[in-house]
Amino acid sequence: MTPNDVAAGWWSGLPMDRVVRVHGATERELADSVNPLPTAAPAIVFFALEPTSAKRTVDLVDAVVDELENAATDSAELWLPEFDLQAGTSTLDRRAARTTAVRLAADTVHFGPYVGALADAAVAGRSPRRAAFTVETRAAGSARLLAAAQRRSEAALVLVVPPGVDAGVTATAAEWLCTHAGMAVWVIGDGASGMDRFPSTSVRAPAVPTGVSTVLDRFRPLSYPPIAGHPHPASDPEKRLYRALDVHEWATGREHNRSIRLGELSRPFTVDVLWRTERVVVEIDGTEHRAPERFAEDRVRDNQLQTDGYMVLRFTNAQVMDDPHRAVATIREAVSRRRSKGDPR
């Protein structure tokens, strides 16, 4: 792949107004290449079907829309940044969130009552009430909000279809989602080969090194790349650590979900939290990091970072969720030590 291919992005030649089949790269390669989401890309989300998940079109549509709506709710702090969702969960807090969301919708394409309902659910810490709106309203509304969260005007759904799935049911659901959610739908996977009603397009993306986890490995069935500078909306440990750090003045200057490139020819990779000046990296490990290949890849990456002068701190999801104050204390000691010694390079 040439530098121009990488710069253009595999998504650049795909239509945004219809369903197409995609081949030439794996879904993991596509996911890894948009982490974090490149500036020129639409808001891209992946939905991985299970072989038994597509018995009826209506069931598949409902499953996708439910997950789009959950993701939109999780991302509320990104599409409604002027309201502090950490303020509280009282009736007054929820009413304020709803009012702010409706005000946002007044000057945009968003549907006020629906945006208000999702803001209310986000503050209350619960799932949205599904029966309050039609599935068409929920599909279009959640897709628009996910695009807004990523600061994009358009969204695209990569539908990962395994073998054994009913191609007719899945194809009809893909067409419905494209029409009613107003987002591109790109189908990929062994099960997509039977959907010959859609044109097929070849794309290319860089290979994913063995052992590297992507957002598809971390989040199922819906997954999407993080927004550079923010914790991933679907990661409770990342959000918990962000909030635990945000109250401390010494923690300023940090970056969340930022790419690091250690050399001109090296492959860039994303770290969870970074103090660039102090050269401190914090990683939060989910259960996927326990796999032997992933564990070995983590050690290789840690060695590369340490050789380049970075200090690497690793915490498990449980450590961050159960005792965030201990994690913050450890991070503070590391950052303070680096600051007291000056430039660590």
UniProtKB/TrEMBL annotation:
Record-linked InterPro entries: DUF559, Endonuclease_DUF559_bact, Restrct_endonuc-II-like
Protein origin, superkingdom: Bacteria
Ranges of residues in domain DUF559: 236-335
Pfam families named among the record's database cross-references: DUF559
PANTHER family, alphabetized: BLL0828 PROTEIN
Name the UniProt record assigns to this protein: DUF559 domain-containing protein
